[in-house]
Amino acid sequence: MESGEPARGPVPPGGLLDVLGVASVVLDTDGRIVLWSPQAEELFGYTAAEALGQYAARLMVHERHSRLVGQLFADVMRTGQSWAGGFPVRHKDGSTRLVEFRNMRLLDDRGDVYALGLAADQSTVRRLEQDVALSERMVKQSPIGYAVLDTELRFVSVNPALERINGVPAAEHVGRTLREVLPTLDASPVEAAARRVLETGTPLIDETLVGRTPADPEEDHTWAHSLYRLEDATGTVLGVAVSMVDITEQHRASVEAEAARRRLAVIADASARIGTTLELERTACELAEVAVPELADVAAVDLLDAVVDGRQSTLGPSEAAVIRALALRPADGTDAVRAADPPGQIARYAPDRLVTECVRTGEAVLVPHVKDEDLPRIARSPEAAVLLGRAGLHSYLAVPLIARGEVLGALDLKRTRNPVPFGEDDVLLARELAARAAVQIDNARWYQNARDTALTLQRSLLPGHPPVTTGLEVASRYQPAGATIEVGGDWFDVIPLEGGKAALVVGDVMGSGISAAATMGRLRTATTTLAALGLDPARLLEHLDKTTSALDHSIATCAYAVHDPHLRQCRIANAGHLPPVRVRPGRPAELLDLPTGVPLGVGGVAFSTVTVDFEPGDELVFYTDGLVETRSHSLDERLATLLSLLDDPARPLEEACDLLLRTLHHPDNHDDVALLIARAQPLP
User: Fold this and answer.
1) How many Å apart are CA 41 and CA 91, to the nearest integer?
2) How far apart are the first and last CA of the chain?
3) 54: three-class secondary structure by DSSP
4) Residues 397-448: tens digit of each pLDDT
5) Which of the ends of the chain has fewer CB neighbours closer than 10 A, N or C?
6) Which of 246, 271, 292 is the last residue of a domain?
7) Contact by Cβ (8 Å): 454, 518
């Protein structure tokens, strides 16, 4: 039904008259009661049979008020002017009650005159008046916006606060729907909720609504609105009451608090996840994994190539940036990922590129809303710019990776799926992540450089490939420790001797670092020199023991063997080293039963030489303790595993070396490994 259109047919009754209990009394010109309503019976206590025909003044008014009542009655009947006011009335039970009257003259179709009195209990009337006055004042003066909607969800009334919230006068609300009054606001959720409230009667409390109104068309506001169904005393549904409170500031504070909490959670996650190893690429991947998807849809970690090589890099205004990509997340094949530099690739970025600006200035570069003209400055190539445009890149952020005052590279962030552009909060979070990760990346960079240098030194002290000697086929491996930059003191050697003989040596200097490597180099040199003298293995170890004692109290273990292909024998002496394994065709592999001896450098204990058969096809496996010792297994268990792996004497020696290292040496082992396998060959 349109607003203002008259009702067609009966409408549901209101409940206000029932609350008031309005009584009707009609008097003739003599003041006799001729009509008496049921409400009059309830209000005055007299039944209709008791009241009809009685003089009203005598029945209902105290004698002291008789003259006043008579005068008022005469005035109404004579002049026709209505009279209203409160008057004390005598109840049947003898009590006196104040009753609110409205009296008026009536004429019937014959011209006869009557007096109509409408009466209600004055305390009930006053209470309703107070309630209405209080409600009206509260609604008008409240800072909360209030409105009443009818069952068609059209405005019936609004208070001044809602006028101010909406920026629309009250008169322009009445008879119109919310979407008609505020066309720029998404009214669908509110209207759907209001219909549910009308149907169910269940209030909706403090739902959030975000949008703009004519009161402030340039900025979003947030409101908390509540909906209640309105019913009269008979339960008839009248409409919906709406309350609206502007909570923009509280909402912003809540959003900022949530953003701060999120930043702290991401930072805490980064502290736990970034820098778990000292591997440069792994550390960069950990940073990228923390950034996606919490901060960006695509994250890349790029370092200046000079920095990776351990050199400082400063860029001038016209210099390009040579960047090595270390990590990229996610690793899927989307256009945005294909547009980025693949990890491990070196790319050259022109001076006008944003990532170049970032590493040159050491400042964050933010493009909240990426336009087509921005893509060439973000992408590495025109083809990559096309891919980024196709991927829907709409926001870009790059922050520098700075550690110890040096710019190492940049954390490159892109949003394609997340519809929210990067903001200042995101810049703060990205900077914090970059600052924390940069220190870990710098540590990993120096670790990697130092480790590469250490391994170069270590390998330079070992033979590149054991020489092929008469009657022997040999294979060897050196495996550095997986979790330390310190070089070890493990070594092996194959030394040709006169008469077609060969010396096989494996040793391990206790400790690590440059000192251990230097000791290892000196012992290897001494071993080579002493071996050339043709000394018995035990005698040679005695000389090495003295040499070791003179080397700053160093201690080393060593197994030394001399192979004689003519006698088909090996003479072996051991200085505190793990026993070699002999592998013979048709027999299980065995640990040679040798006197263990004491390590070199201890002194005062003689060494023993043991002679073992070494026929063509037999193998001797020499190794250092890094191959078999772990913290979680007993040595006997590991040695048994070693023997079980040497189950095929015909296996190529290179394959045997790889098998042993792959199976026994864990990448996180804190000790390096020297491995030497020799197989006896028949003489020509």
Assistant:
1) 10
2) 117
3) coil
4) 999 999 988 999 999 999 999 999 999 989 999 999 999 899 988 888 887 7
5) C
6) 246
7) no
Task: Check pLDDT > 80 for residue 76.
Answer: no
Q: Is the preceding omega at residue 382 within 30 degrees of 0, hence cis?
A: no
Residue 559 has pLDDT above 60, yes or no: yes
CATH (domain of 269): 3.30.450.40
Asked whether residue 110 falls in the same domain as residue 152, the answer is no
Residue 101's SS3 state is: strand
- Give a yes or no: residue 136 inside a domain: no
> Coil, strand or helix: which one is 579?
coil
Does residue 225 sit in the same domain as residue 319? no
Residues 442, 293 within the same domain = yes
pLDDT value at position 2?
44
- The whole-chain average pLDDT of the chain stands at 86
Q: How much is the pLDDT for 1? A: 41
pLDDT attached to residue 315: 82
Residue 46's domain comprises 16-127
Is residue 387 situated within a structural domain? Answer: yes
396 located within any domain: yes
Q: Are 184 and 281 in contact (CB under 8 A)?
A: no
- Six token digits for residue 36: 């008496």
Q: Is 258 exposed, middle or buried (0-12, 13-18, 19+ CB in 10 A)?
A: exposed
289 and 182 fall within a common domain: no
Residue where a domain stops, chosen among 381, 415, 447 = 447
